[in-house]
């Protein structure tokens, strides 16, 4: 409903993008013929470290600020 209204979609994952939620969503949208401006935020395909939650979100580009920045950019 939101995508139909705005024509935009931002998927956010707290893990590797490849083969993840955003991939599944984009596959469904393509199969259904739904066109929209699409972006995904998540971790690139790499080994990651463990540690405190918030600093790791910032390190891998999935902090609240980065998500908000991507959303604003998508809306331009």
Helix share of residues?
Answer: 40-55%
Largest sheet: 2 strands, parallel
The strand line-up of the biggest sheet is: 1-2
Per DSSP E runs of 2 or more residues, the count of β-strands stands at: 2
**Outline type:** flat
- First and last CA, distance: 20 Å
Please state the second-level CATH architecture: 3-Layer(aba) Sandwich
| Separate helix tally | 4
- What percentage of the residues does DSSP assign to strands (E)? 15-25%
Order of helices and strands: HEHEHH
Low-confidence stretches: none
Spell out the blueprint of helices and strands:
Blueprint: H1 2-6, E1 8-16, H2 21-32, E2 37-43, H3 53-59, H4 64-75
Parallel strand pairs: 1-2
What attributes characterize this protein structure?
single chain, 76 residues, alpha+beta, Rossmann fold, two-stranded parallel sheet, flat
Describe the protein in words.
The protein has one domain (2-75): Rossmann fold (3-Layer(aba) Sandwich). It has four helices and two strands; from the N terminus they run αβαβαα. It has helices spanning 2-6, 21-32, 53-59, 64-75, and strands spanning 8-16, 37-43. The chain has a two-stranded parallel ribbon with strand order 1-2.
